[in-house]
């Protein structure tokens, strides 16, 4: 057996060994992917449950809040301010920002 044949057989042997190691690693990789997928599905179920609970609470609070507003509107048809308010007025606030100039008007000719 020549040295060229020995090198060729060594390369073939190392290639087969590398191929077997790769196949074995793929089995472990597929297992890890399955575990990750199961965790994602479990977390998604938990998320959907929390989302449903929060949505139900939100709808309940919105329904009760809108019902309270309706009741207040029916019970107070007019302003119920205190006419005997003797509190002194507070200091004036700072002036507001200047507004935009209006659009120019059209000239009107009168005879």
TrEMBL record:
Give me the stretches of Pro residues compositional bias.
86-95
UniProtKB keywords: Membrane, Transmembrane, Transmembrane helix
Q: Answer whether the UniProt record assigns the keyword Membrane to this protein.
A: yes
Q: Where is this region: Disordered?
A: 83-111
Q: Which domain of life is it from?
A: Eukaryota
Q: Which residues cross the membrane?
A: 6-26
Q: This protein is called what?
A: Col_cuticle_N domain-containing protein
Provide the organism lineage as a comma list. Answer: Eukaryota, Metazoa, Ecdysozoa, Nematoda, Chromadorea
């Amino acid at each position: 057996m020549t040295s060229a044949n020995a090198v060729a057989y060594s390369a073939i042997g190392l290639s087969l060994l590398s191929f077997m190691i790769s196949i074995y690693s793929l089995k472990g990789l597929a297992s890890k992917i399955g575990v990750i997928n199961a965790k994602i599905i479990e977390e998604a179920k938990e998320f959907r449950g929390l989302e449903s609970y929060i949505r139900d609470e939100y709808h309940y609070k919105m329904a009760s809040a809108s019902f309270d507003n309706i009741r207040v509107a029916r019970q107070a048809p007019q302003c119920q301010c205190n006419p005997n308010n003797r509190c002194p007025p507070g200091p004036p606030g700072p002036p507001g920002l200047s507004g935009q100039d209006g659009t120019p008007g059209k000239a009107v000719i009168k005879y």
